[in-house]
Amino acid sequence: MKVVISLLLLVLAQVCLMSSLVPGPSEAEAGPGTLRILVPQNQLSGEEEEEEEEEKPWPAAGGWELSQETSNFGFSLLRTISMRHEGNVVFSPLSLSFAMATLMLGAAGPTHTQILNGLGLQALNGTQVTSVPALFGRLRETLSCNQELALTQGSLVFIHKDFDVQETFLNLSKRYFDTECVPVNFHNASQARALMNQYINKETQGRIPKLFDKINPETKFILVDYILFKGKWLTPFNPVFTEDDTFRLDKYKAVKVSMMYRVGKFASTFDKNLQCHVLKLPYRGNATMLVVLTQKLGDHLALEDYLTADLVETWLRNMKTRKMEVFFPKFKLDQKYETHELLKQLGIRSIFSPWADLSEVSVTTRKLQVSKVLQKAAIEVDEKGTEAVAGTLSQIVAYSMPPIIKVDRPFHFMIYEETSRMLLFLGRVVDPTRL
Ligand SMILES: *[C@@H]1O[C@H](CO)[C@@H](O)[C@H](O)[C@H]1NC(C)=O
Ligand SMILES: *[C@@H]1O[C@H](CO)[C@@H](O)[C@H](O)[C@H]1NC(C)=O
Ligand SMILES: *[C@@H]1O[C@H](CO)[C@@H](O)[C@H](O)[C@H]1NC(C)=O
Ligand SMILES: *[C@@H]1O[C@H](CO)[C@@H](O)[C@H](O)[C@H]1NC(C)=O
């Protein structure tokens, strides 16, 4: 009798750190759905939480700015991706921010400044805010306390056994991001690969059985950061009403999709300037999906130029709740990004260059640079359980015709955690029949 539409998101980001004398990029290969980043090794004994900052409920000082700027960072990344292709997109600004914040712990000088500026968080420098990584750490804690949200986040660091990592770096990444450190011998590639795959498979509950295919033996550390989100709609769609329908790709092409349907109370708004509908689809646990649908087919890319955190705030303020009919396609996306290329375009360059200052990671190993940052993200909006719910059919026969929003053309979606207004996922669905 229970019908649940669930959303499953897997994000994999990967940062490879290695000696800059090594030519070419690392060989690490990402599998489906994890975030992997390079980090150094050490034995961290247990949880040392001595100098915890005062427990203050979110939003902490600077928290609002952190959320706003993380959204803006996400929108900038989206625009950068659009310069490369116009297809489907899904990624997690939050996950990438966690990874960059961990790297900030290891970076100094201009390398550090570039990351801070690239994340748009320079305004937080010099305020009473402790540090950007600490702030992300506080956010992570807050999100993990919310059981209903069904967000699993974690961070692993594989460190070459002889690599001398600064204890402070390890202590802080443990404290802020609960990073687990695993010593690995990268010189024995097959052994290292097996060990890392085993760890990641376990941490991601079997969703990513084989993340690494090839490992560059010069690797010093790999940081893997993953986010799994299994959201449940606050009010599920009833699969009985899901039907094959047409989704228009452009003026000439269309595809068949499974179109879900629900009539009920929805919060939405229409932006007259941008000629788009914005529809709110809430999840359990204070998360929400905003669907942005341009009135005219083919306008969706132009809209991206205007996306800002302020604009989203304006939409949310103008939302009205009323009875509506909503048609929303089921879809599934699986994307992989060479995020380092995108970050360079946003001004974060030094860390990828031979001049990277990663002295907070290691003082003994000079010439350390990040070779790449990968993100792998997947989203699936589907129905689980197909038992018909008797009696609901009558709801459908609406005599007064409510307004209809039919998502049958390219659209954007944003998934927010509402109390912190943090942008968890951002994406664009151009063709729901493709990954
Ligand atoms: C932060 O502010 C201090 C002093 O206000 C300045 O010296 C430093 O360069 C700033 N750091 C960054 C990363 O902007
Ligand atoms: C790191 O944590 C360990 C264990 O709690 C502690 O003994 C050590 O002093 C810390 N080191 C630094 C540099 O903070
Ligand atoms: C690499 O590790 C495997 C498995 O532990 C081991 O059998 C093999 O001898 C190692 N190879 C080298 C070159 O050390
Ligand atoms: C959701 O938000 C409301 C209001 O902001 C808050 O009272 C409630 O505790 C939150 N629920 C969870 C599970 O965080």
TrEMBL record:
GO terms for cellular component: extracellular space. CDD domains: serpinA10_PZI. Residues 75-432 form the Serpin domain. Residues 43-63 are annotated as: Disordered. InterPro entries: PZI_serpin_dom, Serpin_dom, Serpin_fam, Serpin_sf, Serpin_sf_1, Serpin_sf_2. GO terms for biological process: blood coagulation. Residues 1-28 form the signal peptide. GO terms for molecular function: serine-type endopeptidase inhibitor activity. Residues 46-55 have a biased composition (Acidic residues). SUPFAM superfamilies: Serpins. Pfam families: Serpin. Keywords: Protease inhibitor, Signal. Belongs to the serpin family. This is Protein Z-dependent protease inhibitor. It comes from Orycteropus afer afer. The lineage of its organism: Eukaryota, Metazoa, Chordata, Craniata, Vertebrata. The gene is SERPINA10.
